[in-house]
């Protein structure tokens, strides 16, 4: 064992330094199986002090680190490229008591979303962000990626829940800002700077979040519509009429077919339709009538099925939420996560399959996503050796429509080369200056988010 490994072992203990390839294996490949690399070792610190000691040891030795939470990220940012020390945060699982006066809570970065939901709910409070990877995704990872999910339309993304954090900088310095003050204009907002920084600026060790009211009365509608334009008409009606609107999601027949065969789910309607919208309403009193009234009056509705009970709602959500697993079961997807202005969505959807087919004949394009934000998940199966061209042509279609090449998953390693399609050269220069101010030696998550200088503007 080298000096660095000996030093890391002294910090975390033998059981939490994984050097054996069999033990490292589960940490080295991402959820999609598309990104994989060998770590020098995996180190699992137990608290902020151990994280700081680990970082100091690696920085002193000049060894790069890759930061990992629940490893549910979809852009390859949390797995090694090769040779890094992988710092896993999953042992930082402290749950402090819910502060019911402030409506906030402070938790360790390794707490999963599901554990935090279970912690907050007995106090009549809930986490404003929710997503299908809730059982594994960690709060630290969700802040680092500024995760979105299915409630953005009502409560915003992860950064909107964030009131403070604690983090270890690349030289081992700890910054702590956990008072959760509602108003605090005392200079640059370091908490918000770290939201969406994808482990490139600091390792987040504790997080303070504002919580939202737990809304027990819910109604879900799966609505068949005639296409993306009709879905947007329905969205506008839902936004205008439903004071309780909590989610607006979209999927299409190709995805619906895959999900049905994966989950052995019955057809939701007697006929197939060009698109499906899932709406959820949530309140303190039953929102079902409000939802039914709106559906009855909206001309875009071709057919609809509504559920208010827990089992019925879960049955309808399964058509949307199991897309990711169903796609992953069918193959290793090229996953893109984009956002365009709502008025551009229909035009983009219309050209995506043929755009992909032109560079990857025989590939299957599956679309679904968060309709409320114009956030489409473009998943391409069977792209084979054409994955890079698929990424290129799809992201260019998005850029032409003034969209974002990463709506909620981050840039990671998957899209770093294409960053200049969404950020100007001047902006990228500022991002680089921030990175080198905090991490001058480039030891944290190298190759993630920012293109390496040689790649700069290659894809622009
Ligand atoms: P990881 O995958 O471990 O890491 C992700 C990134 O964050 C990496 O760059 C890593 O280096 C960095 N990081 C992790 N922890 C820390 C830390 N403590 N400090 C600093 N950097 C850190 N995402 C959405 O936005 N919306 C969705 O609806 C959604 N649904 C999903 C559904 C499924 C089934 C799956 C598999 C994924 C989904 N995701 C979604 C993606 C993923 O769950 C999120 O990106 C999540 O925030 C990642 O959390 P994690 O703990 O797994 O992070
Ligand atoms: C989702 O909305 O289901 C997620 O972002 C996961 C995905 O894109 O596959
Ligand atoms: Zn999503």
Account of the 3D structure:
The protein is an alpha+beta fold. It is 35% helix and 20% strand. The protein has four domains: 3-88, Uridine Diphospho-n-acetylenolpyruvylglucosamine Reductase, domain 2 (2-Layer Sandwich); 104-213, Uridine Diphospho-n-acetylenolpyruvylglucosamine Reductase, domain 3 (2-Layer Sandwich); 217-324, 2-Layer Sandwich (Alpha-Beta Plaits); 331-455, Alpha-Beta Plaits (2-Layer Sandwich), CATH 3.30.70.2740. Strands 14-11-13-12-16-17-15 form a seven-stranded antiparallel β-sheet, sandwiched between helices. A four-stranded mixed β-sheet has the order 1-2-4-3. The chain has a four-stranded antiparallel β-sheet with strand order 5-9-7-8. The longest helix is centred in the last third of the chain and has 18 residues, at 342-359. It is globular. Residues 31, 67-74, 77-78, 89, 109, 131-133, 137-138, 140-142, 144-145, 147-149, 198-199, 203-204, 324, 408-409, 412, 445, 448 line the site of flavin-adenine dinucleotide (FAD). Residues 370, 377, 408 line the site of zinc ion (ZN). GO terms for molecular function: FAD binding; oxidoreductase activity. This is FAD/FMN-containing dehydrogenase. One of its GO terms (biological process) is respiratory electron transport chain. Its cofactor is FAD.
């Amino acid at each position: 064992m080298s000096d660095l490994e000996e030093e890391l072992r002294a910090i975390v203990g033998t059981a939490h330094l994984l050097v054996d390839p069999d033990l490292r294996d589960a940490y080295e490949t991402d959820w999609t199986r598309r990104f994989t690399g060998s770590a020098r070792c995996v180190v699992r610190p137990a608290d902020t002090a151990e994280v700081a000691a680990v970082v100091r040891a690696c920085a002193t030795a000049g060894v790069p680190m890759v930061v990992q939470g629940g490893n549910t990220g979809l852009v390859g940012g949390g797995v090694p490229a090769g040779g890094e020390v992988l710092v896993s945060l999953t042992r930082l699982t402290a749950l402090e008591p819910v502060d019911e006066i402030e409506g906030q809570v402070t938790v360790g970065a390794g707490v999963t979303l599901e554990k935090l939901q279970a912690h907050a709910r007995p106090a009549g409070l809930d986490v404003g962000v929710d997503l299908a990877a809730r059982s594994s995704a960690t709060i630290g990872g969700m802040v680092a990626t500024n995760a979105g999910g299915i409630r953005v339309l009502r409560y915003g993304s992860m950064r909107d829940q964030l009131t403070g954090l604690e983090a270890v900088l690349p030289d081992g310095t700890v910054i702590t800002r956990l008072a959760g003050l509602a108003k605090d204009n005392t200079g640059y907002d370091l908490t918000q700077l770290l939201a969406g920084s994808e482990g490139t600026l600091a390792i987040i060790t504790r997080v303070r979040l504002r919580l939202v009211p737990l809304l027990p009365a819910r109604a879900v509608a799966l609505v068949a519509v005639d296409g993306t334009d009709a879905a947007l008409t329905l969205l506008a009606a839902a936004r205008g009429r439903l004071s309780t609107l909590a989610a607006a999601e979209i999927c299409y027949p190709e995805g619906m077919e895959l999900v049905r065969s994966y989950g052995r789910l019955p057809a939701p309607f007697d006929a197939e339709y060009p698109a499906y919208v899932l709406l959820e309403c949530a309140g303190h009193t039953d929102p079902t009538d409000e939802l039914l009234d709106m559906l009855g009056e909206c001309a875009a509705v071709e057919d609809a099925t509504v559920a208010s009970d827990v089992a019925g709602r879960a049955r309808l959500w399964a058509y949307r939420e199991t897309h990711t697993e169903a796609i992953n079961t069918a193959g290793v997807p090229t996953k893109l996560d984009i956002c365009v202005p709502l008025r551009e969505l229909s035009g983009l959807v219309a050209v995506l399959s043929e755009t992909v087919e032109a560079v990857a004949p025989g590939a299957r394009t599956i679309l679904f996503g968060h309709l409320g934000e114009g956030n489409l998940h473009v998943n391409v199966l069977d792209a084979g050796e054409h994955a890079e061209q698929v990424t290129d042509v799809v992201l260019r279609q998005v850029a032409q429509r003034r969209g974002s090449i990463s709506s909620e998953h981050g840039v990671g390693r998957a899209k770093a080369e294409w960053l200049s399609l969404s950020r100007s050269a001047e902006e990228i220069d500022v991002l680089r200056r921030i990175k080198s101010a905090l991490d001058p030696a480039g030891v944290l998550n190298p190759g993630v988010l920012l293109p390496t200088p040689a790649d700069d503007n290659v894809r622009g």
